[in-house]
Each structure stands twice: as C-alpha cells, then as structure tokens.
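Retro notes - structure team

What went well: the batch runner handled both jobs without manual restarts.
What didn't: labels got mixed up in the shared folder, which is why I'm recording both outputs here explicitly, each with its sequence directly above its tokens.

Job 1
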Amino acid sequence: MDNVKPYRNRAWLGVLPVVLVVAFSAVVPLITVVNYSVQDILDFNSRFFVGLEWYQQTLNDPRFIQAFVRQVAFSASVLLIEIPLGIAVARGIPRNRRLTPLLLVFLAVPLLIPWNVVGTIWQIFARADIGLLGVSLNSLGISYNYTAVPWHAWLTLLLMDVWHWTSLVALLAFAGLSAVAPQHYQAAELDGANRWQVFRYVELPRLRGVLTIAVLLRLMDSFMIYTEPFVLTGGGPGNTTTFLSQHLATMAVGQFDLGPAAAFSVIYFLFILLFCWLFYTSVIATAAAGMETPDRDTRG
C-alpha cells in the first residue's frame, strides 16, 4: 500500500499541465463572463453593479424562450435521427475485410470539412435555382425553397447536420461493435437468436459506453450549433432557424450588450451542463439497475 500512493501522486503531476491549460482557457474566461453578467457596462471605464437584473431579463425575454424551444427541438431531432442511423451504418460495415479501412476513411470525410464550408456546400446544394437538391425537387413538381418556407429551412438544416455528423456516431458504434468477441455471436447463433435479439442482448450492452459518449458529444455540439445555420439560412426565414448561439452573437457582437449577453452565456452554459448531467445520471442509473436485476432474480 505504501508504494501505491506515490504512484498516484506522480499520475496527478502528469495531469497537472492539462489542468492548468484548461483553467487558463476555460475557467478564467468563465469567471470574466460571470463578472460581466452582474454589471451594466456602458464602456470599458464605466460599469455599475446590477445584481441579477440581466438574468431576470433574459429568462423573461420571449426571444430567448423561442430560441430555446427551437434549440431543444433541433437537438432532439438530431439525436433521434443520427443515433439510430449511425448504429445502422456501423452494423452494415463489414469487419476484418480488406476494404473496411477504406470504408472507414470514406465515412469520416464529412467530419474533416470545416463547419463554414459545410454551410456553404449546402447553401449551394439546396438552392432552388442552381442547386442539385433544389432543382431536382422542383423538377419533380415539389415546390422547394428553404429561403422562404420555414419547414423547408428546418428540413435542410436537419439533412445538413445528419450528413455532417452521423459519421461520428457510426465510427464510435463501429469501434464498440469491433470489441464484441466472435464467441458471443456464435453462442447467440446456437441459441437461435434472430438479428434483433443479437443486437438487443449481445451488441447493445457493449455499445452503452460508446453510445453515451456519442450522445453527449452530439447533444453538446447540436446545442451550440452556430456556423452552419448562420451560413445556410442566416437564422431565417424570419427567426425560424435562429438558435441560442445566433441570438447570443447578435446581442454580444451586433448590439454590444455585454451585460445581458454575459448573463445569457451563463444561462446557456448551465442549460447544457444540466442536460448532459441528467442524461449521464440516467445512463448510470439504468446500468446500475441492469446489474442488480440478475442478483435479485438469483435470490428469488
């Protein structure tokens, strides 16, 4: 036992540089934002303490509430589409084949494209006059114009995000499936399990870890989406695709309301933290319940 404690101390020393970098790049700016959120900043030399006034104003602002509802709807839609689709794609990729590495590289191509370029690609691709998607739909008799019809803009944004990020879920799921030993599949085949039963009882329990990471990453990223919708729709038509990040950018950069924007940022951060914590806690509780169930059955 005496030899374990120094080893753990050395491990913490190895992590210390990372902690310092994170503290400088994340904690210090966060403290600055919290400081701004309780002040009325007229200029760099004139500021007055206002307490929680900006927080109350933000939470009672109809524009914030509408942007929050749109944000939740978009993030939920993204997760409901990308997680099952990513798993399906991962299950369709052959394992231990010569072309498997090439398929994985091809699958990862959308992840390598910068966000502003993704928005530009889809802006051109979906245009009703010259875009392949827009012209094709209109030639089929489907009136499509994402710059004028709100639900067309929503559908285009969802398609763009699915195209861009489903690869991440698929790669993570493929990594989890690759860790399943062949003996498990052989045992399931001997028991006469069908494809759904193999997925439910053999693959899904071993995908829980990577799917937790995938959902957390996609939840946080979709909740902070800014560049793609800004380039594609500019928040329109009207404000129908204006999400929280765009509303925040308008306040902080366009209107230079640093105090309200800082309060908005803190609330924004707390919402993301809350959603991630609730999801992670539910996953841990479900896993714990699943581990306890066989013990109860055995005692019964």
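Job 2
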Amino acid sequence: MKHRPVKISAVGTHIPARVVTNDDLSLTLDTSDEWISTRSGIRERRIVENGEAASDLGAVAASRALEAAGIDAADLDLIIVASLSPDMLFPSTASFISAKIGADGTPAFDLSAACTGFIYALATGNAFVASGQADRVLVVGAEAVSKMIDWTDRGTAVLFGDGAGAVLLEPADSRDEGIIGFDLGNDPSGTEMLQLPAGGSRNPATEETVSARQHFIKMNGREVFKFAARVIESSARKVLDRSGCKIGDVDLFVPHQANIRIIDAAARKLGIPPERVFSNLERYGNTSCASIPLCLEEAAAGGRITSGDLVLMVGFGAGLAWGSCLVRFGDLQRIQE
C-alpha cells in the first residue's frame, strides 16, 4: 500500500504568565538556584494559575497553530492530545480542547505515553494522514504538571513546568519534505521508576492514598537518568539507520527537555555538536508532552529551523517509553510576534 508523504505544516504554543524561579522555590524547599541549575539546567518554569487546566493551555496553542496555517477548526479531520496531566480521567482533554476551539463533530481523543506522548501522537497522526484516512490532523501536547507535583518533594518539585504546543499534520507536496520515520518502544520493567501511584483503578482515591501523598508524581531520578541517556542514543540511531541518514545529516537535534545533563550526555554519545542541539529547558523546565513542540516553535522563530532542514526529535518518559521522529521540514508556519 503506497502511503502519502506527511508534513508538519504549522506550530502554535502557549505558556502560562506566572514565572517561578529557583530562588522562589528555595523559600519553601531546602534547595538553591545553584543546586537546581547545576543538576538539571533549570532556572525557572511557568506555572498555571488556580483554575487553569491542561485544556486551557492546549486550546490556545491549538488556535495559534490553526491561525498560522490559515485554516478553521471546522477543517480538521482529527484532534489527538498527548498529556501527562489531563483535565480528568474522562472525558478526554481532546474533547475539552475541541469545544474551546470550535471543532464540533471532529473526532478527538487522548493518547497516554507520559513524556513520550507527543512523539507517539505524531506517529498516530502521521498514520492517519499517510493512509488517506485524514487530511488535517492536529496534534497537541498540553500540560499542567504542576497540579500533580508534591511541592515538599525536592526531587520532583524543581523539575517540572506547564505549557502547551500544537502542530498541524497535512499531506506533503512531495517526498522531498515531511516526516521520514519513527522509532517507538517501551520497557515495562521500569514502570515503578516513574509513576503517579494513586487515582486509577489499581489504587483508587481513598483517605489513605491522600494522606500518603500518592496522588503526586513519584520518580527514581537516578534510574530514569540512566535509562534516558541510554535510550536516546539507541533510538536516535535506529530511526536514522532505517531512514538511510547519518548523524552528520542532522541539522537540529530536539530532545525532550527533562535534564540538561541527559541532553548533553546523549548529544556527546551521538556525536552531535552543541550548536546543533536545541534546548529551552533553562526557562521552562520539564513540560512533558509540551516540551518538543515548544522547542519547535522557538527554534523556528529563531531561525534554527528553516526549509530543507533535517530535524531529529527524541522523547522518553514513564512506561518506560521512548520515541524518535526524523523530519525534513518545509516552511513551518507560525504566528509572527
């Protein structure tokens, strides 16, 4: 079966206005700006206000992507939302976003793959467009992770931030541009390394789970670090090999923004020079499913992604899941600000 080439034609993002610096966190935690920044690369993050949820951020990002592409929400064939911090277990955050942007009647669903969710959602949307089942798919990564953080836990409170990013997938005009390939995987032996223990059918909410603070993210940072450093390299090499490309062909490397030490270690192992690595971790922290689209928009705005560039994106997270995507960009539309 011959598949159509698929391109990422537009991107839109949104971040909360509230900035929380490392110095702010040091007022309530036994930490400091130096301790956080040297271990993670993070100096500040954006945090939603009370009453704001993932769909509120995602809807703005989605609207901006549509505006950049010059199309209406009614023109969409499918909406896929990846989120670690959905508005609620059900209905889907995608349903809330579709209502906010006026996409009535459009199929919409959530995809759960933790911080790798955006890459998994890209792969899913790509399959719909490539097979001809859809012409326009909106992929959104939307996060209000701060609502799931134990602000007394120094190991996680300093790492995460909130934000959203959306991209539009459409058929490419030629096979000279567009999505080239994916590598996806999951190691279920590491499910306990990064999880939200309670609130699902395994451990439903009770007085005991609340008092034990089981409704917040729990992470074995050391083990997740080792996993990430290993899997970024292996997954990146797989997608390049399958696509007939080499490391030297990559114009920009866009990894999930979890920790600067992970990013630097992966780039060194791959042999990618610092000038070809994109990171905005210092200002946003780990925004989970939103991190890669936030990077894409910022890179395009700064001239780091231009027509013809080969971009390698790699995600990793709970599951333990990973995913890589290789894209030859055409003109990536965004709102000029």
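One thing worth noting from job 2: The CA atoms of residues 150 and 216 lie 6 Å apart.
We'll revisit the folder naming next retro.
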